[in-house]
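Loading example: each entry is read as two labelled lines plus one structure line.
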Amino acid sequence: GQNIDQPTEMTATEGAIVQINCTYQTSGFNGLFWYQQHAGEAPTFLSYNVLDGLEEKGRFSSFLSRSKGYSYLLLKELQMKDSASYLCAPLDSNYQLIWGAGTKLIIKP
Amino acid sequence: GAVVSQHPSRVICKSGTSVKIECRSLDFQATTMFWYRQFPKKSLMLMATSNEGSKATYEQGVEKDKFLINHASLTLSTLTVTSAHPEDSSFYICSASAGTSESEQYFGPGTRLTVT
């Protein structure tokens, strides 16, 4: 079957760094997306990884290891507005996004 | 960046009535549009995938006669919830993609449907 595993909730301090891990099992693999979703809003795109390694984009970086079925999203210099849910979504062999419930990130002052 | 709009953003309707939700890609041509629903604190659930000019492909368990999807042009798709019931109350989100299958999906802002 297809499965996404992320922590349900994480708490971090403003200005700090946090890493959100994601392990996945899919039927085939065509890359992995990370999305940010604020409460009551639709998801917004953060990153896409298709090759192993780290992709850096400003304060956000995303890492992928295809052999381990593992990805993480790294957020640096945390700001209060980063409080949101972070969704790890791999693309399966049919190019369909597989969604988990996401990780709710709480930022404290 | 690519912008996708949805209308209405919120709708309240009575049980038994039908509701139409529009999804528009404003600055690009969307070869594929996706319709999701999301319950509170739950993951997005793909309902159907539609390509312009062809019938939508529904996911298992989604009633095609209840959730009518029309993708009449490269910039517009509509979802009609027919004979709505309170259990249809949910957050409905569309997304649009241009180009290849692995292209990024651009999400609309979502529509909050409440059926009384």
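Residues 51 and 86 of chain A are 21 Å apart (CA to CA).
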